[in-house]
Structure formats: C-alpha cells, structure tokens
Model the fold of this input.
Amino acid sequence: MSARPTRPATISPARRVALEVLVAVRERDAYANLLLPVLLRRAGLPPAEAAFATELTYGTLRRLGHYDAVISAASGREIPAIDPPLLDVLRLAAHQLLATRTAAHAAVHQAVEQAREAAGRGAAGFANAVLRKVGERDDAAWTARLTAGLDDRIAVLAVEQAHPAWVVAELEAALARTDGGDADLARLLEVDNVAAPVGLVALPGLADPAATGLTRHPLSPIGVESPGGDPGDVPGVRAGSVRVQDPGSQLAALALTRARPIVPGERWLDLCAGPGGKAALLAAEGAAGGAALTANELLPARARLVERALAAVPGEHTVVIGDGARFATGEDRFDRVLLDAPCTGLGALRRRPEARWRKQPEDIAELAATQTRLLDAAVAALASGGLLAYVTCSPVTAETEDRVADALDRHPGLEALDTTAVLAGVTTGPLVRARRGTATQLWPHRHATDAMFVQLLTRS
Done:
C-alpha cells in the first residue's frame, strides 16, 4: 500500500502579511508603520491574528541585521549570496524560531512552503536545512557565538541589541552630551527594541484628553497613550480632533506655541509640514489665539496629507507646495516658524523599526547640508523678535547641536533660548533636564517619547 502524499503546510495569513511588508520594505523602501495597517485592514484579520502579524513584521525588521548574521552563520553563505526573496522568508522564520513561542516545526514547515512559493523547490530544501540549524540554538546562544572574540564594546552592543555599530556609536556620543546620560546607552538600545505605546494628541480646543478614556502621558498636557488596537476606535480620531502623534512631537510644537502668549494676527509658518501632525497642532493652538498658519510641504502627495490633517481644525490656515528653501529670500516674514527638519530619524526607532538598517553613516553629511539650507531659510523668514523652533527626530549631534551652533555663528542677531525652561512650564510632570547649553533632547528611555531635539531661537 503506497503512502499517502504529504499535504503542504498551510501558510498563516499573518505570515503572508508580514512577508509582504518585508518584501515591500526591501524592494520599494516602504515604511512598515504605514503599509502594515493597510494590509491588515485589507486581509480582514481577527485581532489575535493581526497582533501576531504585527509582531512578526516589526520584530523581524527591528532585529534584521542580527538575524542576517545568524542566517549567514547557519548557512555558511554571505548574505548577498542568498536570493533576496528567499532571504526575506528566512528572516521571518528566524524571528519566529528565536523570539516567539511558535513551535519550531510549525515555523520551519511554513517557511519551507513560503520559500517554495517565492523561489522554487531548491530554495525550499535550502530553507529547511538552514532553519533546522538556526533552531538548534536559542537566541542567547547565537548571540554568544556571534560576539565571541569581539573586544570592542560598541561591536558587542551592536550584536546584542540589533543596531548597526555606527548607530550605536552615534547614540553613545549624543548621550555623552546630555546631563547624566553617559551610562544610559544599553538601556536606550533595549528600549529601541520594544514597541512603543500608540501616542495620541487631543487637539486643544477640539478635544479633551480625559474624554478619550486612555492613560495620560506623564509629560504632554494634551497627550494620551493606547496600549494597542485600532486607533480609529478612540473617540475623536475619526473626526480628526484626536490624532496619532508621539508625545515628543507634541512637546516640540508646544515649545513654540506656548513660549509666550499669542498676539492676535500673528503669522506662523510650518516649513516642512508633511504629513501634517505638527501642523494640525499648530493650527489648533493658533486658532485659539487668532494666529494664521501657512503649512509648506515639498511633495504634493504629502501636502494632501497636510490638508487632510488641517480639515478638522477651525481658523485660518493655508497649505502651499514647494521647496522650503525659497523662503530664504526673506520677502515673507512670520512671527513663529517651525522647522521640523528632514533627518536620519534615529530618534524614532521604536516606531520605525526598519530605519536603523536603511540609513548609512554617509547620509548624515547629506542631511546636514539640507538642514543647514532649510535653517537658513527659516531664519530669513523669521520676523524681528519672532520665535523659531528647530526640531529633529534624531539625537545625532551633527544634525542637532552642530546645526544650531553653525546657524548662530552665521546669522548675527540670532539668539538661542533656554528651551528646557520653556518646556518645564508646559509639561504636566517633571521634565528631566536632559540638555547641555540651551536645547532640549528627549529620550525614549528617559521621557517615554521619541528622541526629539528641540531648540528655540529668536531674532533680535
């Protein structure tokens, strides 16, 4: 009697969604935090399955470099020698084997089936052999093997905490420049690998944080936090009066709007407004005091997002499209200017898990040049006696303190304000004085926010 043929393992919908995100991140530089919710809604996954897909996706992307090192050691091949579609399958399975409670045989069987779909029968056999070797050790044992013989502290932390070594070095340098931050490096890297709560802002004058039913953030007077689930279920979100926004971004905007009383008729500028979260908060704050907001965005698609963000906010606000550097002519002057400058985004690694692997050290110099160009335009657009907030979602010194110091050297009459003192009068709890000089540097492990840098400037 012949044996009954074995049926191929059924691939879970969660795993299919997770793999689709990984492929999109690799092939199209997609943002996982934007794409995943779309795919989850399209797939109609029940809550438990959606949560599993989220863990698979973000967990794999956070520790991508670590898993690549494990896969290379287990396969005896350099990563560039592995077919990219197959590599995505192996990465996903490595996360299941080393960081979840998925049964090893189930993870391997599904990965083999996905490898067959993605790259053919030969790839399935290769995946089976590699993943069985991966499963022979737990993550701690693999980490010990990968760090054996490493003498450099930065290199060891890079392997242990799944960050590129250059990112670890930049974070260490930035921490060393903040009060009491020298010993915080390992803790910061650990927090980067933990999913952040969903932060939301109750726009002033439009929503009450207490009415959301969520936990108040310890620092932002208008911020709340959700442990998870669909933010659209929170009262006010669908109407636009409550928005998803990290508390660090809230504090950056409030530093500008609440540094001094608003005078009716003030003109405000958000120089790099997309996708519109800070613009909506500025508009809400400005509406209460009679200020008018101009929100500028370079890309038309992102400008449309800004328009949507402002749709629910009353008051006078306008969205314009173009390079923010055009304001360097000084023909148009504003009483308050927000420059949320393009940056490496290394302050938001909890929320954008792929960012640590996407950026390269050489990106810093290119971004610094852009930041300088836009900061010059922001200074030119600032009315005499006006306020300028220079903000980045990065703690990297070349993108933060260095840019401010350079601007102060080149622009006579430009002065730095004690931003931490301003924010101390805004926050609902004690703000750790995490700064040297006049800027405020927030940290995920110290303030439960993204690592936002905020410097208030004025022009005399």
About this structure: The longest strand covers residues 382-392. DSSP finds 19 helices and twelve strands in the chain. Residues 363-381 form the longest helix (19 residues). Confidence is low (pLDDT under 50) at residues 1-9.
